[in-house]
Structure formats: structure tokens, C-alpha cells
């Protein structure tokens, strides 16, 4: 494969490149020696800089980015308004722990105002796991109950609380006993339904109607809260059937359970609305936010009802960098761009175009077992054959590598590591999206 070979991709021709390039290879060698391997599961490209949906590696190769890091850089790389806000803030004030700043208090208000009316406060933190951890702790304190219901395949972060409510061994393997009180129930993942339902409606029905039975058989009578993602991210971009989340919320509220929605990944325009909860008109008691809230600056938040937050006494919960002025200024800039440039609307429009194109690809490539998504979060599930649906994890890794060689950066997720995640920054145009899809098509042709 010569590096002068070109691939025809939409309106743009991308040079086929060897990855890793020489400078990337040097740095990867340092990484392999000095960084633990637990963090590396990527195509071997060392990023240098980015602009919009494009990224350049340290060897000068250009790539189209369909990862947004891990659904973080929703504004695109180095958006000028974001950069300016961060630079201005850096020259004024970077951290002051929990002393209020104009940036922090106005951001808390701005976020709260965007939430459903029952939510009237926001608590600014640094990482997604910190937000889910805080939600779990606050729910336990408020209800006085220690059990939390979560779902097969759920992912809520890697610290102990979130890990203990995860619905996948991937997060907790060989870490010993988990926090007591985790109760797990099947999530409506129709493609691989736990109940082997014939229809999506039946799958949705069973996943609700069996909840009481699951609780009756596994709870010690101390269930206080439910935590769920609007769509399962880490397990493969799995969306529940329409209306199912509202049914779950009603089920929880009818039983006086705190309903926690983990929007760490799904928020800030990703699904075509600012928050995914808008699709089903949800009214969770607490909403965890992260990733896109800073579009690259470490930031997260827990929005919730003040009557619940009040169970925490003054000074009982805080975070060294939570709500720091840098992150808060960055999040204000994120909201400015979301509103002014209509990024959620663009995510919806380009996402529809992409879904249509991927459904066409699915007709051509039998290894593409399932295509699903909403807005700019699309999962391509690869299988050995459509009948058995055996997960094709190796093929998925080869697709990532081949796409990388052709100039497209992809990530993978899934319980079985067989789902390509399509999640470009929300500023992507249809033309750019088309280039990436042409590359995936070319990669699949070469691999078959
Ligand atoms: C739904 C969800 N919750 C929580 C987290 C944890 O976020 P962080 O990695 O910022 O701790 C993630 C991260 O992927 C996530 O997708």
C-alpha cells in the first residue's frame, strides 16, 4: 500500500497513509514504556492539532474526526469563540476552589434555566464519574435507602459508586466486592434482547413489566433510586424504544424512587436536542452532565431539585476544580455556540443524512448487522453473520485501522467490542459526513 495511493471520498481526495507515521511511532514507543496500557485502545495516531472536524497528527497527516475524542468536543476542535473565552479567562483567574465567581454562579443559573421546571439547582464538578458518584451519594442520603436500580449494559463511570451500578463486567472485572445495594434489570436492547421478544414493543413491555418482579426477588426492601442513560453509550449506542424512558420514569415516581438520568454523554446537542431528556419530556430528579459541557475543558455538573440537594450540609461535598472559572467560561462559550449556531439542529439534520447513508451501506455489507442512532450518535454493530449475530470484534478493530489509513478516525464501543461509534463534532457538514461514510464504505470493501 503506497502512501501516494488515493481514495476517492466524496468531494475530497484523502491520501492513504501509513499509520503510525515515524514521529507517531517514536512517541508511541515512549507511551508504551511510560504509560499504563489500560488507557490505550485506539488506532495508533498521535494527535497534534485540530480544527472543526479535522485533526492532524504529529506526522502532518490529516484525518476526519468521527470520535469527538469520546463525544466531548461537540463544538469541533478549537472553535474560535471557545478558545477566546478560555484564553481570556486564563489571563484573569484560573482557580479559587469554592469561592464563587461570576462565571460559576451564572453558569449554574444558565444550566438550571435550561432544565425541566422541577430542577432548580446545579452543582458544578469536573468529570462525568464525579457527577454520577455525587448523584448516587445524594440519592442515598436523601432517601435513607442504599439500593440503586440500574440496567444491564449501563455505564456510569469508573469510580466505585458508578462502577458498582454498572451493567457490564468490563467495568468491574477483578475489582472484588462492589458496593452493596446494586440491583440490575434488562435494558431494552432489541437487537440482542434478553427476553428474545418478537417485536420492539414486546421488548419494551417486558423490560418494564418485569421490574417489580426483579425488585421483589432481589431487593432487601431498601430501594431508593434508579439510574439510567438515555441511550447506552459504552455498551454500543443502544437507544430504548420510543416512550420507554417516560414509562420507566413513571414507574420510578409511582414507587417514590429518585430518578437519576445520566446525560454525561447524551447532552449538549449530541442527539439533536440540547438534552436527550427533551425527546421524551422527562422530569428526572437529578441529571448528570459531562463531556460536551466543556467541549474539551474538564467539566461536569449535577443538576437537580433543591429539596434533594438540601440533604447535604454546608461544605459537605465539593471538588477542587469543580466549577472553576476556566471550565465555567468554557461551558458558557459552549452554550453560546450551541444557541447561536444551532448545533443540536445541525446534529439532527446531518444525523438523518448519515443514518440514511448507513442504511444503504447495511444493504451492501452483510457484516453490518445493525445500524442505529439519533442525531450524531450512530452505532454500527458488526457481526460474523446476520443469522447468528455473533459479534465480529476483530473485524471491528480492522475497520478502525483501515479507516485510519484512509483518513478517518473512529472509535469502538459495545459489550462485545463490535460497535463502531460514529460521533463527529456537531459542526460537521453533510459534505464532511459524506466523506467519512465513503471512507467506511471503501474500508469495508477492502476488508471483505
Ligand atoms: C453515560 C456516562 N456516564 C459517566 C461517564 C464517566 O465520565 P468520565 O469519563 O468523564 O468520568 C461516561 C463516560 O464515558 C458516560 O458515557
Topology (SSEs and partners):
Layout: E1 6-9, E2 12-15, H1 22-34, E3 47-51, E4 54-57, E5 62-65, H2 68-71, H3 80-92, H4 102-114, E6 121-125, H5 128-143, E7 147-151, H6 160-164, H7 169-172, E8 182-185, H8 200-209, H9 211-218, E9 223-228, H10 244-254, E10 258-263, E11 286-289, E12 300-304, H11 306-309, H12 325-341, H13 343-364, E13 368-374, E14 377-382, H14 393-405, E15 408-409, E16 411-413, E17 419-422, H15 430-447
Parallel strand pairs: 5-15, 7-8, 7-9, 9-10, 10-11
Antiparallel strand pairs: 1-2, 3-4, 4-5, 6-12, 11-12, 13-14, 14-17, 16-17
Pyridoxal-5'-phosphate binds next to helix 5.
Architecture overview:
The chain has helices at 22-34, 68-71, 80-92, 102-114, 128-143, 160-164, 169-172, 200-209, 211-218, 244-254, 306-309, 325-341, 343-364, 393-405, 430-447, and strands spanning 6-9, 12-15, 47-51, 54-57, 62-65, 121-125, 147-151, 182-185, 223-228, 258-263, 286-289, 300-304, 368-374, 377-382, 408-409, 411-413, 419-422. It has 448 residues and is α/β, with parallel strands linked by helices. It has 2 domains: 6-73 and 343-447, Alpha-Beta Complex (Aspartate Aminotransferase, domain 1); 80-341, Aspartate Aminotransferase, domain 2. Strand 3 and strand 4 (54-57) form a beta hairpin. Helix 4 (102-114) packs across helix 12 (325-341), helix 13 runs parallel beside helix 15 (430-447) and helix 14 packs across helix 15 (430-447). Residues 1-5 have low confidence and may be disordered. Bound molecules: pyridoxal-5'-phosphate (PLP).
Amino acid at each position: 500500500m503506497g502512501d501516494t495511493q488515493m481514495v476517492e471520498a466524496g468531494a475530497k481526495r484523502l491520501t492513504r497513509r501509513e499509520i503510525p507515521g515515524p514521529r507517531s511511532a517514536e512517541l508511541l514507543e515512549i507511551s508504551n514504556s511510560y504509560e499504563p496500557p489500560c488507557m490505550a485502545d485506539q488506532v495508533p495516531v498521535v494527535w497534534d492539532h485540530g480544527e472543526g472536524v479535522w485533526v492532524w497528527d504529529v506526522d502532518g497527516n490529516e484525518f476526519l474526526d468521527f470520535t469527538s475524542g469520546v463525544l466531548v468536543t461537540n463544538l469541533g476542535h478549537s472553535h474560535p469563540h471557545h478558545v477566546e473565552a478560555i484564553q481570556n479567562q486564563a489571563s484573569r483567574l484560573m482557580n479559587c476552589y469554592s469561592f464563587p465567581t461570576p462565571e460559576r454562579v451564572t453558569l449554574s443559573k444558565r444550566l438550571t434555566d435550561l432544565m425541566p421546571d422541577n430542577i432548580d439547582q446545579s452543582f458544578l464538578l469536573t468529570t462525568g464519574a464525579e457527577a454520577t458518584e455525587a448523584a448516587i451519594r445524594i440519592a442515598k442520603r436523601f432517601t435513607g435507602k442504599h439500593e440503586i436500580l440500574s440496567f444491564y449494559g449501563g455505564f456510569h463511570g469508573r469510580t466505585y459508586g458508578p462502577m458498582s451500578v454498572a451493567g457490564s463486567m468490563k467495568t468491574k472485572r477483578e475489582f472484588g466486592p462492589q458496593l452493596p445495594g446494586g440491583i440490575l434489570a434488562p435494558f431494552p436492547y432489541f437487537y440482542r434482547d434478553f427476553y428474545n421478544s418478537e417485536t420492539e414493543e414486546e421488548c419494551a413491555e417486558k423490560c418494564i413489566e418485569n421490574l417489580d418482579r426483579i425488585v421483589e426477588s432481589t431487593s432487601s426492601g431498601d430501594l431508593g433510586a434508579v439510574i439510567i442513560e438515555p441511550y447506552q453509550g459504552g455498551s454500543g449506542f443502544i437507544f430504548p424504544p420510543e416512550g420507554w424512558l417516560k414509562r420507566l420514569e413513571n414507574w420510578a415516581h409511582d414507587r417514590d424512587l429518585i430518578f437519576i438520568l445520566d446525560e454525561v454523554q447524551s447532552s449538549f446537542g449530541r442527539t439533536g436536542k440540547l438534552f436527550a431528556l427533551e425527546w421524551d419530556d422527562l422530569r428526572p430528579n437529578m441529571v448528570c452532565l459531562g463531556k460536551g459541557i466543556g467541549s474539551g475543558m474538564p467539566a461536569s455538573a449535577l443538576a437537580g431539585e433543591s429539596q434533594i440537594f438540601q440533604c447535604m450540609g454546608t461544605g459537605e461535598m465539593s471538588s477542587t476544580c469543580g466549577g472553576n472559572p476556566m471550565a465555567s467560561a468554557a461551558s458558557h462559550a459552549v452554550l453560546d455556540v450551541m444557541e447561536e449556531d444551532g448545533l443540536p439542529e445541525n446534529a439532527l439534520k446531518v444525523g438523518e443524512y448519515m443514518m440514511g447513508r448507513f442504511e444503504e451501506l447495511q444493504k451492501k455489507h452483510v457484516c453490518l448487522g445493525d445500524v442505529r442512532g439519533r442525531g450524531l450518535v450512530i452505532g454500527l454493530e458488526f457481526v460474523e453473520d446476520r443469522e447468528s449475530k455473533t459479534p465480529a470484534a476483530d473485524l471491528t478493530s480492522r475497520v478502525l485501522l483501515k479507516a485510519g489509513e484512509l483518513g478517518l478516525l473512529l472509535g469502538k464501543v459495545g459489550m462485545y467490542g463490535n460497535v463502531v461509534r460514529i460521533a463527529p463534532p456537531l459542526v460537521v457538514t453533510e459534505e464532511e459526513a459524506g466523506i467519512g461514510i465513503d471512507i467506511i464504505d471503501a474500508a469495508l470493501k477492502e476488508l471483505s
